[in-house]
Predict the structure.
Amino acid sequence: MKKLLLFCLVLVLGLSACSPAVAPPEAPALQPERDSEEENSTTPIMGSQLSDEEATRLMYELLEPKNQIATDTILAAHDTRFIAVFIELLRVDQLSILRNVNYHNPLDTLETLSGQSIGYDWFAWVEWYGKTNLTSPPGFTGWKGHLLSQIDPEFGEFLQDDFPSTIRTEEIVWGGVMVDGIPALDNATMILAAEADYLIGDEPVFGISINGDNRAYPLRILDWHEMANDVVGGVPVSLAYCTLCGAGVAYDGRASNGEEYTFGSSGFLFRSNKLMYDRQTRTLWNQLTGEPVLGKLADSDVKLNLLPVVVSTWDAWLAQHPDTTVLDINTGYNRPYNPGAAYGHYFIDEDTMFPVWQRSNLLPNKDRIYALEIEDIPKAYPVEILAKEQVINDTIGQTDLVIIASRGEVTVTGDSQRAGEVFYNAGGEVRAYARKGETFSPASNPDTVLDSAGRVWQITEEALIGPNGELAPRINGHLAFWFGWYSFFPQTLLYE
């Protein structure tokens, strides 16, 4: 059954970095029922396009009190480029929080231009639009920035017409918070394991180990911040966590262009994936790929390199790294840092919170997968299968690799602020290594594997170490929800 859950301005302000938050950091959006195998809709027939200059002018006139003349002109020309504009106006009309926007009830115009009878369902409109090859009028990005700057003036700084872009800005949607309304943790206080009495043994943590510096970042805290900029073993690290697509990715802040970047949350989403921004150039980046997509860096080939990260239980991480430090629960922010509090309701729901038009029914939307991209070949491994097999020897392109998940899946029993007690899967402790022709199998000790000769190899964060000092180096990947990975890598291979 279709549901309409409207944003509340009080909620948005309550989630700002300056105010205590008592509600989950991302608000739900309108969500339709839909068929994952639905065929792409036909693109509407283009009418007689208006001139670029006139189209740009009419977009802004639609925001004025006397906007009927602009509407009539667009309808007379049947300029389908304005479908994107009226989808934005439909969303604004639903939110009812922009006082200076005077366009109401845009549905009739939208359905006339598109030839679709989708109804007052913004979620479905965005997914329909994504399947088309429609374009927007010239100046649309700046117009959208002007529109959304009424929510937060900084939104207009991200959405400007003269910025290069590698994505359709029509698909950028507001996630319900201001810029940095989900505040990043910057060089947050780390404490000794013995001092972390707030942790439960079986709760999930992100584990990062670089140059002998072992650190744990509990998901109960990162659920509320989604970004931790830190220095681990002398390396600048940005742990970028997209709660909506289930992906915690560790990036080296030293990008391929030699510059160093730190990141925050823009408040924008793209296919239900967070768009982070760098504080140095204020370019928007894809959290899942580590690439700039809109802004000053978007026309460059700059990219962030992956660093090793694993999701483990606190007990398992501590047993493997007894000298680990862990994030202090006293972050300086007032949040209910309990397992499942922020997103437990979302993790147990098969639906997405925001539109994602590119989907696959090969797995359920929120099945956890371990994702790799090797030699430009993406591949996904269901965590459920990894946990059963424990060790998988595979080849991607010309690279032989072994994937190890000897401790099974990580589950959470928590208390959601919206749904009460919840139980969900947080992934599993998965690592990948280059096996260089060797074949491995599980051992009785979860910290080791056996080679084809039955010899014992140690599992470490940097490499598998053989009995004679042989090394099988780590290959960096990360967990994600299946839908989150597929939406950006539809050509992905899937291990079955």
Q: What stands out?
A: The first strand starts at residue 172 and ends at 174. The chain is about 20% helix and 30% strand. Confidence is low (pLDDT under 50) at residues 1-40. The longest helix spans residues 83-95.
